[in-house]
Specification:
alpha+beta, 22 helices, 37% helix, 15% strand
Length: 710
């Protein structure tokens, strides 16, 4: 036989097959209407059945088609971050046929409604079978309900065991089929079918019993989900695991007979017992999802920019780090892509929500706290922009006074003359205060607001202390600021929602932003592999209440806060020991291979101090009573005339004030110390006798004290 003839026969055969299916479907629909008429009773003649059924169906009004479904908050890839229960604490996740494993749909239809896509809501064959079985056995053996009839019952929460209930379900089923597509009816069933307790719908059931979406199911899981809605309370795996196992195994055998599963797959599935564990629904990014729902009260599906995998890993990492902290301490983490402003991970509290001791319910990414030294880079960036300083400019770290304000460094020491870049890397207080005094605190606050943050001032007017943490900011604010620095001085709006980019708003120049990044990236990040290339700054607020570490590479910006949520001090806790190591680990999670920082803009002045213009070679503070420039050195202890007890185990500690380091120290004309930059020095144990102590600073000014050791 020729290939053309074979092709022709196949075409004719396929055409006849389609005609057969079409005629069979038409026959089923006509028969279903006739069976529906049969159950109306004999009051209407058969000749008027169509009109009677049309009137019967047309007179029916549908109840609300959809109950409220759980609000779902999803990650950037569609993964469920968190769902919120509906009325009475029920879990009901909206489900469409495309959301489930195709094999589950095949098994469901084979088990519940083989002619779902052919009948008009009522299956005549199923009803005839149910009627015959009821007459033969004297009781109802099978209900003959279609999936459409089951949906009708779910919508009205109707009865299942009476003919009156069946009749009402048939009526609503016919109405549903007239007004909705098969896919929509199937979606209603997949969303509302009962699966035991407060679990409704196949997606909610899959999360509760398997801990996953029903996209891919094993034969055992498929069979369990098929049989649970038939007896949801008596087959609940968490309460009646044996009954659930028996029903599942029976369904597996029946589905194997229908050819859906092989005998080997069924045998393997039947050997596995049903797990009695009821799993919790996902609750990733608790604080972010709560805020997203509150800000979008009318939306059922909310999409965020969070990366579910990264969020999960950082929540686990921060929870593990809690073991290294004191009982009341917690931490918060924020990760964003500074090129887009999209927040990729947000941990509002590392503790579990049940931990009242750590007050985990407070979102510490939004809590207003003191930033400590974390704002210093912006002060230096402004100084660079205003032509007051350059990274190579020399600045004096010496005692100063501005009115009644007498700032000091964290360690109480003074380093004398050093470069601006060194002052920022060492996070010294006095150099940044002298720069801010020239810039002006109000101007600094305006620039801070231009960066996109919302600073909170207590007492109204800004003072010089804002550079050292005397202003309220959140972790979200600080990460916003550093994201702008990473973007070359452009304000970046961070958000967990995808938004169109806003017009560029610049708060500092490209050159100044690059210089800050270059300085901050030159300091190694403690306890972090491959930390080179991360520009970071730590900050410890007054009283050790807040430990900060904020850093960025060429793409990502990361912020870490460690402290007590109630604002009380963590005694002896420093950011370099708590927040900084965690920052390094997070960068390894986010991007094991760091993106390089941007190259310097063409306008950047990269020269040595000697090559700088004369005004930039050295910064001089204005309107400050600088003791280093106005007063001679002073020996604070021991004061002249002091009489001290001799002790072979106790060294004599000399304390200085004023002058310009480095210092030279003499005792009875003999050199005791040269090149001293600290304000304190140990002269070692002193013998008995009289001593003339002298100190000479780098400008040649001196101080003297005469003491007696006896």
């Amino acid at each position: 036989m020729s290939p053309c003839a074979c092709h022709g026969r196949r075409y004719v055969s396929a055409h006849l097959s389609r005609q057969h299916r079409r005629r069979r479907g038409d026959h089923i629909r006509r028969l279903s209407r006739a069976i529906a008429f049969f159950f109306l009773g004999s009051a209407v003649s058969f000749a008027a059945a169509n009109d009677a059924i049309d009137h019967w169906v047309s007179s029916a009004e549908l109840p609300p088609l959809l109950h409220e479904s759980s609000v779902e908050v999803r990650a950037r890839d569609g993964e469920l971050l968190r769902a919120f229960a509906v009325e009475d604490g029920r879990w009901r996740l909206e489900t469409h046929p495309s959301d489930v494993d195709p094999d589950y749909l095949k098994a469901l239809l084979a088990y519940e409604d083989k002619r779902f896509f052919q009948h008009a809501g009522v299956d005549p064959y199923a009803l005839l079978r149910a009627t015959w079985q009821a007459a033969w056995n004297g009781r109802i053996v099978s209900g003959g309900s279609t999936l459409t009839m089951q949906v009708a019952r779910l919508l009205e929460n109707g009865r299942t065991g009476s003919w009156q209930g069946k009749l009402r379900q048939m009526q609503l089923a016919l109405v549903l089929e007239r007004k909705m597509s098969k896919q929509d009816i199937l979606s209603l069933y997949l969303t509302h079918a009962p699966f035991g307790g407060n679990i409704e719908g196949v997606r909610a059931a899959s999360y509760a019993y398997f801990g996953k979406e029903p996209k891919r199911l094993t034969p055992a899981q498929t069979a369990l989900l098929v049989v649970l809605p038939q007896a949801p309370e008596t087959r609940r795996p968490d309460r009646f695991a044996q009954a659930a196992t028996q029903a599942r195994n029976a369904a597996l055998e029946r589905l194997a007979k229908d050819g859906l599963f092989s005998s080997e797959a069924v045998a393997s599935a039947q050997r596995r017992s049903v797990s009695p564990t009821l799993r919790s629904f996902p609750t990733l990014a608790f604080h972010s999802t709560s805020r997203a729902r509150a800000e979008n009260p009318d939306r059922q599906q909310i999409a965020l920019t969070l990366d579910a995998s990264l969020q999960r890993r950082l929540e686990a990492l921060s929870a593990k780090k809690l073991d290294t902290l004191e009982p009341k301490a917690t931490m918060a983490v924020l990760v964003a892509d500074h090129s887009t402003g999209e927040v990729l991970a947000s941990v509002g509290s590392a503790a579990s929500m049940e931990d009242l001791n750590r007050k985990a319910f407070i979102d510490m990414t939004r809590a207003i706290r003191s930033p400590g030294s974390a704002l210093k880079p912006l002060v230096y960036a402004m100084a660079f922009d205003l032509g007051l300083a350059h990274p190579e400019t020399l600045i004096n770290d010496a005692p100063v006074r501005f009115g009644n304000y007498n700032p000091s460094n964290f360690d109480g020491q003074f380093r004398g003359v050093l470069k601006v870049r060194e002052a920022l890397q060492m996070s010294l207080n006095i150099p940044v205060i002298t720069l801010l005094e020239r810039i002006g605190p109000e101007r600094f606050m305006q620039r801070l607001q231009q960066s996109g943050v919302n600073p909170q001032l207590h007492g109204g007017k800004a003072g010089l202390a804002v550079a050292l943490g005397g202003v309220g900011l959140s972790l979200h604010d600080l990460v916003t600021l550093y994201a702008g620095l990473a973007q070359g001085g452009k304000a970046v709006e961070l958000s967990v929602f995808q938004r169109a980019p806003k017009p560029e708003a610049r708060f500092t120049s490209r050159a100044a932003a690059w210089q800050i990044g270059e300085i901050l990236s030159s300091t190694p990040l403690g306890n972090a592999r491959l930390s080179h290339g991360i520009a970071f700054k730590t900050g410890t607020s007054y009283g050790y209440r807040d430990n900060w570490a904020i850093g960025y590479d060429g793409r990502y910006v990361v912020g870490v806060w460690v402290g007590r949520a109630d604002g009380t001090p963590m005694q002896g806790a420093f950011a370099r020991d708590t927040a900084a190591p965690l920052l390094g680990q997070i960068f390894q999670y986010v991007a094991p291979q760091h993106s390089p920082l941007s190259p310097p803009p063409p306008e950047t002045l990269i020269v040595s101090n000697a090559e700088l213009p004369q005004p930039l070679q050295r910064f001089e503070a204005r309107d400050a009573l600088k003791r280093a420039a106005a007063d001679k050195p002073d020996i604070v202890f021991p004061p002249s005339g002091a009489r001290l007890a001799a002790s072979p185990d106790m060294p004599l500690i000399l304390k200085l004030r004023g002058g310009t380091p480095p210092y030279a120290i003499f005792a009875n004309g003999e050199i005791k110390e040269l090149g001293l930059r600290n304000s304190e020095v140990s002269l070692g144990p002193m013998a008995q006798g009289f001593f003339a102590l002298s100190v000479i600073d780098s400008t040649g000014r001196s101080a003297h004290a005469e003491i007696e050791i006896r």
